[in-house]
Specification:
The chain is an all-alpha fold and 192 residues long. Helices cover 73% and strands 0% of the residues. It has six helices and no strands. The protein is elongated and about 50 Å long.
Length: 192
């Protein structure tokens, strides 16, 4: 004789928390805050790159990516207002740091600027993938938006790879440094 298993509860991913974890609404607010900060930083990186390389052959490619980042930022700016999420207090830091990173890598050449894009987008891919999984079915509109933006970030990475990013001077070192800084920026922006 077999016994039937009790029905399993299929709950949104945000319902599963450990003691001490933030409530689902706080988790979503953190996601919106950090995504807003990240898209703001990305916009500034591309502005720095455009200041140096905007009139050169890579200018149209960088401008296309910058336009997409501006659209992503506008979406998160709307969510910050609609959901009454406090933006990170670090926006002034990201304003300067993003532009400096973009300009500095562009001064090293178009391939270094593309190496910056690859490094940032690989970190953002993992970040957005984790958010999408955490959102589950709890926030389908936000999850879909994150997935849409993730696809465009991957497009940026692939474009940068095709433009010779891995041929940048000291690519492994440059890539690692930018990835570490990007991960740190994510952690700080979630909380501050």
């Amino acid at each position: 004789m077999t016994t039937a298993e009790p029905p399993r509860r299929t709950a949104p991913a945000l319902d599963w928390r450990l003691p001490g974890d933030p409530r689902p609404a706080a988790q979503v607010a953190r996601m919106i805050r950090v995504d807003h900060a990240g898209e703001y930083g990305a916009k500034r990186i591309y502005e720095g790159q455009l200041a140096v390389l905007g009139r050169g052959p890579s200018g149209p490619t960088i401008r296309h990516m910058a336009d997409q980042e501006a659209r992503h930022l506008a979406a998160f700016e709307r969510l910050v207002v609609e959901r009454r999420v406090r933006p990170t207090a670090l926006l002034p830091v990201w304003h300067v740091a993003g532009y400096a990173l973009g300009a500095a890598t562009a001064l090293l050449g178009a391939r270094a600027a593309m190496a910056c894009t690859v490094a940032v987008e690989e970190v953002i891919d993992a970040h957005y993938r984790g958010q999408s999984a955490a959102l589950g079915t709890a926030e389908p509109a936000l999850r879909d938006q994150v997935e849409e933006f993730r696809a465009e970030e991957l497009e940026h990475r692939d474009t940068a790879l095709a433009a010779g990013a891995t041929e940048a001077p000291a690519y492994p070192l440059l890539s690692t440094a930018i990835k570490v800084a990007s991960r740190l920026a994510i952690r700080l922006s979630e909380r501050i």
